Amino acid sequence: MKLFRDRVEAGQLLAAKLMKYANRKDVIVLGLPRGGVPVAFEVAKALHVPLDVFVVRKLGVPGHRELAMGAIATGGVRVLNEEVVQDLGISQLTIDAVAVEEQKELARREVAYRGHDTPPKIKGQTVILVDDGIATGSTMRAAIKALFKQQPARLVVAVPTSAASSYREIKDQVDEMIALMTPEEFYAVGQWYEKFAQTTDEEVTRLLEEAGHGPGLDEAASREVHHHQS
Q: Are 30 and 143 in a shared domain?
């Protein structure tokens, strides 16, 4: 399988598979920060639709932060990985303590990226949810669950690459799922990219501003940019 050069190229290739959603007033692209945003930016640009972020924070097991016992998302949604919680006998108290910490970081990021923490309007919209790839899928599943609570008309998940097992699982949870490659042997998202540098908060903010939705633009200017894009 040919590697993606970087997130920009991956986003452009992904956009080509989503052109039926182009120039539609009821479509919004949501990027999962941080790495999903440069991919989502290219998709939104190609489709001429608005871009926003949907913030999800992993709830790491204390002492093993990289192991997810669940996640929280924009709109106060919490999803637990029951298997991990039960296997490790994690108490509700522990889960709550980690969730409180991550909630602070979630709010900080929403303000840093957007200038406010008002979530994007989802109800009745066709939402294209984008990340740079899916390994275990815990973040994506949390985002899906959170978004469905807000009653989108249609939820599409679009990623350049996904572990085959996660693809099969997530595909059944959404209206449509697009992944450009779904390898069975999947260790990390970064292995499918030639360049996979950490995306910074600054980069996320810059892309949102460029797309007409960052803290650097007031609402009127934001609407004006969307007007020009459409």
A: yes
Q: DSSP assignment, residue 209?
A: H
Residue 127 lies in a domain: yes
Please tell me the distance from the alpha carbon of residue 37 to that of residue 59, in angstroms, as a whole number: 21
Distance separating alpha carbons of residues 143 and 123, to the nearest angstrom? 15
Interhelix angle 7-16/36-47, rounded to 10 degrees, is 40
Cα 191 from Cα 182, distance rounded (Å): 13
- The per-residue pLDDT for range 93-147, each reduced to its tens digit, is 999 999 999 999 998 888 888 887 677 889 999 999 999 999 988 789 889 988 9
Q: What is the CATH number of the domain that holds 18?
A: 3.40.50.2020
**pTM of the shown model:** 0.84
> In 18-103, at which residue ranges do the beta strands (DSSP E only) sit?
27-31, 51-53, 56-61, 64-73, 77-80
- Which residues have C-beta within 8 Å of that of residue 156, sequence separation ≥ 6? 18, 21, 126, 127, 128, 129, 174, 175, 176, 177, 178
120 in a structural domain: yes
CA 138 to chain centre: 11
